[in-house]
Amino acid sequence: MKEHARVVIIGGGMMGCGLLYHLAQEGWTDSLLIEKGELTSGSTWHAAGQCPSFIADYNMAKIHHYGNTLYPKLEAMTGQYVSWHGCGGLRFATNRAEMDYFKKVEGTAKLIGFRMQVIGPDEIKAINPHVDTTGVLAAAWTLDDGHVDPAGCCNALAKGARDRGAEIERRNRVLNVVQLPSGEWQVVTEKGTVTCEHVVNAGGCYARLINQWVGSDVPITNMKHHYIVTEPIQQFIDADVEMPVMRDPYPSAYYRQEQKSGLIGIYETEGSQEAWADRGGYPEWDSENELFTDELDRISPWVERTLERMPIWGESGIKRIVHGAIPHTPDANPLLGPTAGLRNFWQCCGSSIGIAQGAGCGKYLAQWIVHGQSEINMAGLDPRRFGRWADSDYVRARSIEDYEHMYALHLPGEERPAGRGKRKSSLYDILAAAGGLYTTASGWERVKYYALDGQDEEPGFRHNNAFDAVAKECRLVSEGVALADLSSFAKFDVSGPDAPAMLERVFANRMPQKIGGIALAHMLNDDGAIEGEATVTRLGRHAYYILSAAAAEDRDFDWLAQHIQEGEDVTVTNVSQTYGNLVLAGPKARDVLSQVTRADLSNEAFRWLTAQELTIAGATVRALRVNYIGELGWELHCPMAAMPAVYEALMKAGCTYGIGHFGTYAVNAMRMEKAYRGWGSELTNEITPIEADIERFVKFDKDFIGKAATLQRKQDGAQGQIIYLEVEPGDSDTTGGEAITVGEGQVIGLTTSGGYGHRVGKSLAFAYVQPAYAKPGTDMTVWILGEPRKAKVLAEPVYDAGNATLKT
Known about the structure:
This protein is an alpha+beta fold and about 800 residues long.
């Protein structure tokens, strides 16, 4: 075995081989994959091999579509059999909400380029005459997906990688992974030690064991999963056309043709079981090709429902039962990207449908490793979306919930109970008693809105009982005064003699020069793409307070900490749970705040985009005159334990002014009216400040990471351009990922986020389009739940474009 490599991948399943193949394609042929058994011997070999196109998430849809375009030609490319069956797929809708979802996915199909049609029961029967469509309203027919032989497909990727110069070591157990003082890694194996720059955990069901070597863990629960293969079916023997893969919420199952037999895969909706629960949830490191004894009694209710759908299978015997383990994450997405707190230790694991996703995951992770960024938004795949708060109880509860809801649509506004309450502000019970309905963000419980009628939100894709409640909150903020608990922000203290210089280098904007100054700033990578957005407040000569998105907490901490150069005296401290944050906003905000502090709050003494330290209810408060909603107001950051006292003082002082509450739904509505871009939606690793039209926050007269690339992009011109849209109103609004067309259906871009602006009575959206269509006044069409809506490009925010309200 070689002693040095640029990259070592641990694990020879679909995810590991998919990455090795694409690293080699990117030119990194000095890559080594080490597999302790034979390739595919973990969970890949016993997978059913499904490759669906049906998915609404734009980035995940790109991952799936890439695999479904590569696999049909992979056999010819490599000479290794893949056994691609391009039979297409049908997924059933049994209620109106699922029909709406189908229309949303249909919009994704327009963007990605996979063929999809929504068809009725008669057309379903024409495609699959054997299925009983009782209770089925429609089906999503995805014509370009199918299934493969898992072992064959994985070995084809491995052969393609070897053909390009990458290497594979089989039958060689890794024993340890150690980081050297130089930052390089040593991978210790039974056959020797290899030193490398990058290590990738592609261990599948073994991924948690691998991470333990570096003092870490991954949020994965391995679940037991059955599929059954029947004896040959006469109707299949006689047929010339293969039955499509069926996906059906009624039996919570997929079922299809397997050669001339039937195949049934079950996702139990209750009573599912964790694999190896008696061993901590993962297999022994020396196990291989492990299957479990079948438990047909446990899955029989769902099998019976499948046989109701496919009566021709009712009398058939069982030829084979496969009962193996598959990994699940708490949110169903794989883990692709860096490990929190470690340089160049990557994750490529956690995929519950790894055959479908292996190639696409490998492609986009390889781009990230090689180039420092990917051509798709990786925020929803980055392992650091789960912080230390995601303990084993949370991961297990949420992953089991994910498994049991495989074919149960998760509706907007639907709050599922597993793993809730991991991170709460000290106001949780108080705000719940005030009518606050909670959702979650990065483990935090935060109020989405305050119920007018005491009822929970009615989930769905269209306007619901939250609509009027949010409108009331927006009016309260714009006409009076209200409070919101936004303690979920990521918060960092950065200090030390070299902190000013370090932050000037890390952020593209100039750092505040005066103590108390505030700047909105962006972290860019070497290619000028946006890694993060933060509000930076200068607390002292060498002290700063940095706020960023809740979902970016671990990745932003890493970015700051890992860009401290050798010899620099800088300390970065994560204080996200140390401080709470109350937002006080509205034209009466100054009146209320002046009742609880002796500080001079006049516009001359406490200007917009400045901060001061106040004392409120005996607590020391970092008061920032800034907010995300475009009204006069302050963010009040105080120790979490002191927040109830600060809240009570503000509420008491605000009684005269009719003070109330607002939640995150109202925040989104108001930020859309102000045309404030959001990290993770408008601001992603796919684009630079030039495309995002935030060049005003980039100071080219200083040095910063990504400066040269950003200047080059400015000179070359944007490849796409952000636009701000007013959309024809309806009973639903843009949520992101909708197709935008002109003329006779020409797709020119996609939305990134949106919402209804209650202060102005307009449906609004952000989008990226081809630059030729970015001029204000340009007309286009946004496709929302399958409905074409007229839209027009706006030149400026629809609410207080001159920021007069903020600066008053």
